[in-house]
């Protein structure tokens, strides 16, 4: 949103800026082009808040800017965690930081004072929809002291086009799993795990016990709310 101030200068109303909803901003080429760092620098320079979603440990290269933004307003890092088992994670997400590596990043961000949010999705039916997996991820979140966890349910979605690619990958990585998906879900868009109800109860129970925000609406409100921090320096009465 833009407005003209008293001096007739076009200005932008400060708000939270966000990137990474459609694709990870820290693609391999980012190390050469530095577009994310340029965006963070502009946000820092003009006093905007910032949030981004990533699966990459490359974000730590920009920790100085994240801290600078967070000192003035709010900078929130969102990371996706879906698979606690490292071997399975490498199968499902072969070209990004592993879950363990992302967990280490979350801890480092917390130690630097940067608030974090985790996306717990997608959870693939018959593959990582187990109590062991969910508890493992939640234990990571507890130890990393994340602010909140976004979860829309234990399952996934498949559009036309992506379904064909997904089934090809199932054939390579999990023989005969494709047939089980077809028998169970047909051509549905939403593929909810048969364990959805029990796993969601477990998810909400653990989050409530450990003080992790688990209401999606509350988390999105937090992500969208711009906060300008007050200068902690107190002036003398005679200044």
Question: How would you describe the overall organization of this protein?
Answer:
- The chain has a domain at 11-152 and 212-224: pyruvate-formate lyase- activating enzyme.
- It is 44% helix and 15% strand.
- The protein contains ten helices and nine strands.
- The chain has helices spanning 30-33, 35-46, 63-72, 86-92, 99-111, 131-144, 162-173, 177-185, 196-210, 216-224; strands at 2-4, 10-12, 16-19, 49-54, 75-80, 116-119, 148-150, 155-157, 190-192.
- The strands form three sheets. It has a five-stranded parallel beta sheet, with helices on both faces. Strands 1-2 form a two-stranded antiparallel ribbon.
- Helix 6 runs parallel beside helix 9.
- The protein is globular and about 55 Å long.
- The two termini are 36 Å apart.
- Mean pLDDT is 92; it is low at 1-6 and 232-239.
């Amino acid at each position: 949103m833009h407005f003209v101030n008293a001096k007739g200068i076009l200005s932008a109303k400060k708000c939270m800026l966000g990137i990474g909803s459609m694709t990870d901003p820290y693609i391999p080429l980012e190390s050469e082009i530095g577009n994310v760092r340029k965006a963070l620098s502009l946000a820092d320079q003009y006093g905007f808040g910032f949030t981004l979603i990533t699966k990459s440990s490359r974000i730590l290269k920009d920790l100085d800017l994240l801290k600078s933004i967070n000192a003035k307003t709010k900078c929130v890092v969102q990371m996706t965690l879906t698979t606690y088992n490292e071997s399975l994670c490498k199968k499902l997400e072969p070209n990004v930081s592993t879950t363990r590596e992302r967990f280490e990043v979350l801890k480092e961000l917390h130690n630097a004072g940067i608030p974090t949010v985790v996306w717990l999705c997608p959870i693939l039916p018959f593959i990582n929809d187990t109590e062991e997996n969910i508890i493992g991820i939640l234990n990571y979140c507890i130890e990393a002291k994340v602010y909140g966890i976004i979860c829309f349910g234990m399952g996934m979605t498949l559009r036309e086009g992506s379904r064909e690619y997904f089934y090809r990958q199932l054939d390579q990585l999990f023989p005969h799993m494709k047939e089980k998906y077809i028998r169970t879900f047909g051509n549905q868009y939403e593929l909810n795990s048969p364990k959805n109800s029990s796993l969601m109860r477990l998810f909400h129970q653990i989050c409530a016990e450990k003080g992790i925000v688990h209401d999606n609406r509350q988390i999105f409100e937090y992500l969208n709310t711009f906060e300008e921090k007050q200068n902690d320096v107190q002036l003398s009465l005679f200044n």
